[in-house]
Amino acid sequence: MKRITTVIAAAGILAAGSLMAKAEGVDEINPDVAAKLYNPEMLDPSQPVGASPLRTFKAKNPPPWKIGYASSYAGNTWRANAMEELQNVIVPKWKELGLLSELVVTQSNLNDSTQIQQMRQLVDQGVDAIIVCCSNPTALNQTVQYAYDKGVPVFSLTGYLTAETAINSSVNYQVAGFDIGKAMVDELGGKGKVLVVEGIPGTSGSDSQDRGVKAGLATSPDIEIVGSIAGMWTDQVAQGEVQKWLATHPGKLDGIVVQSAAEMGVLRAIAQSGREGVKVAVGGEMGALCSWRKNPDLISVAVQTWPPADEIQLIWDIMMRTLQGQGPKVQSVLVAPVTLTHEDVMKAVAEDCDENAQNWLAVGKDNWGSEAYLNDFFVNPADPMAYKP
After folding, report:
1. How confident is the model at residue 64 (pLDDT cuts 50, 70, 90)?
2. All structural domains of the chain
3. What is the DSSP letter of 144?
4. Tell me: the pLDDT tens digits for 306-336?
5. Is the pLDDT of residue 18 over 90?
6. Beta-sheet strand order (sheet of 2-3)
7. β-pairing verdict for 100-107 and 2-3
8. Angstrom distance (rounded) from CA 220 to CA 227
9. Are 249 and 227 in contact (CB under 8 A)?
10. CA distances from 276 to 197, 294, 307, 329 (A)
11. Confidence of residue 343 (pLDDT cuts 50, 70, 90)
């Protein structure tokens, strides 16, 4: 496994200088990280990267804290795996540490109005912080401010909110998308017809990654994007949509770039269509990694964009550090994607693996927001598990 650092050196040097002037807070973090992940040329233009207003935040109550998780969707393997990590690993550990009293979970099923109502109810019920996932980047802003005014900070994982007081954490999706698209270009030798399968259009994680994917594909003039459809980060949805697309587009197709967690749906659609030799991008879903293990020619590298267990651990640590008064420096804590080779998969995935598996491969804390990495993003860094009020 290794980090992707696809940044043009000259552009990175120039960007580091411009970031110093434009984004107070980013100039406080490691310059190499700033140049690679906060470079305006490789960053979603709406990604909030200013100095965080929460750098002087103090929790309204002492621990143990009551936390709200206002989830926007529960209908795919990613959400299920994130929830499993949250309820079965994180909650017991932090309760044992004496820092968590209760986790209150709500589900809005992609309805912004419902999520807004649920967040306000969580605030009124006395939570000390709220985590949201993969939500509309602007729809929740007034509610984030409402929560902040009541002393309740909001933390967004796997996608950003544009509210000034929100704290966001994720991979740099534009960098990740670019590398996924560029990997497909390299896979096809710079020439071919490619179908793009987005996630949930309108969410920042999907839109940012899609922008990067198309920029990566555009590095070769001989790559043609022949279609763009929404897979909704769900195997069943992606399978149906790709089947419909293939049925109405009988011409040559060389590759499909798909956002996890929809790879198995794409692979099943291709198999049912009888097409052969189509290269398919692979992310972190174990079923897809199993399929790649058994079919080495499927692709050459996979890009881990959002391993759910690692993602929920990352935002939880950021939230706990903030409640403890460590002071986040910037509005968005970004990490680099991780690449997997087929050799990595041979080691990480068992030979008797199941292509119907719905769990995800975790890359581990050391590769996805380690303690040392996070320390650099806080004014008063400390081990959050060692906190004593």
Report:
1. very high
2. 173-304 (3.40.50.2300)
3. H
4. 999 999 999 999 999 999 999 999 999 999 9
5. no
6. 2-3, 338-341, 301-304
7. unpaired
8. 17
9. yes
10. 18, 15, 29, 50
11. very high
